């Protein structure tokens, strides 16, 4: 059993995020079995939300809904769905049609609620121009950060994905001077150097992975998204549990020391969900844990 390969690969040129809710008819277990055969962990990554575990009356260690954070500043929406698919490829039309086929395959047990088109921008940059993913762990460290181990068959190699759609306010971002923009991130946009003198609110100071106890490493595979005149970042982080992401999010929203992440000056999340990605066996999703 291995973890979905997509976790360890650079983001593709194009992506499509599909979010499903439980339908009112159909056999969910049989549907997931059919779907599992179509998800190889590379061209399609499958994530199950807590509503699926609840409906099937099974327990996946650590699987829980996206947290409600009433103290968060600013507010963080929780929009947990039953199932998430991340389609990856090099051509958006192909991904659209693949998505249609998968939607038909899971109907009526699962119903599509949201589809988000995402893409790679330049050399792995956010639409603000800042390089994203620099501090991702690599190789064995990535596997250690992003996949469960020592938990037994059906669980080992699985991963816990946090997914949030962030909407950028480009007017606000453009109104800042370049030094102010750099201070939001704590990195220099051109050189990508970390800025030691950046304020405590700087994003990379809020989220510095080795500064948490325990250390909070994740593998981020975020991609820009666009829909009409709106655009931003589809944030995606894989962990061996949801804990590292949640610790980072709490620090970004002032829970640890009252300081709020400077990113909120120009961007905010619209959605938030937690999804458990089963391991891959023989080129398809292994649903042993659902048995
Ligand atoms: C619109 C939203 C966001 C944008 C544009 C953004 C962008 C960035 C950029 C440009 C970096 C610096 C380069 C790098 O190491 O990747 C970074 C680092 C990082 N971000 Fe974000 N990010 C966003 C949201 C989040 C969220 C919601 C989390 C987690 C809750 C997060 C966690 C991290 C972590 C862990 C690092 C690396 C910190 C370190 O160890 O140095 N980011 N992000």
Task: List all distinct small molecules, including ions and cofactors, that are bound in this structure.
Answer: protoporphyrin IX containing FE
Approximate strand percentage: 15-25%
N- and C-termini, Cα separation: 16 Å
The best one-word shape is globular
The total strand number stands at: 12
Using the CA coordinates, give the radius of gyration.
Answer: 19 Å
Structural class assignment: alpha+beta
Q: Name the helix and strand elements from N-terminus to C-terminus, one letter apiece.
A: EHEHEHEHEHHHEEEHEEEE
In which range does the helix fraction lie? 10-25%
Largest sheet: 6 strands, antiparallel
Tell me the number of helical segments per DSSP (H or I, 4 or more residues long).
8
The overall average pLDDT, rounded, is: 98
Question: Which spans have pLDDT < 50 for at least 5 consecutive residues?
Answer: none
The gist of it:
The chain is an alpha+beta fold. It has eight helices and twelve strands.
3D structure, described in words:
Helix content is 23%, strand content 24%. With 291 residues, it is α+β, with helices and mostly antiparallel strands. Strands 5, 6, 7, 8, 9 and 10 form a 6-stranded antiparallel beta sheet that branches. A 4-stranded antiparallel beta sheet has the order 2-3-1-4. Strand 11 (280-281) and strand 12 (284-285) form a beta hairpin. The relative contact order is 0.23. The structure holds protoporphyrin IX containing FE. Protoporphyrin IX containing FE binds at residues 126, 130-135, 164, 166, 185, 187, 203-204, 207-209, 218, 233, 235, 237, 245, 248-249, 252, 263, 267.
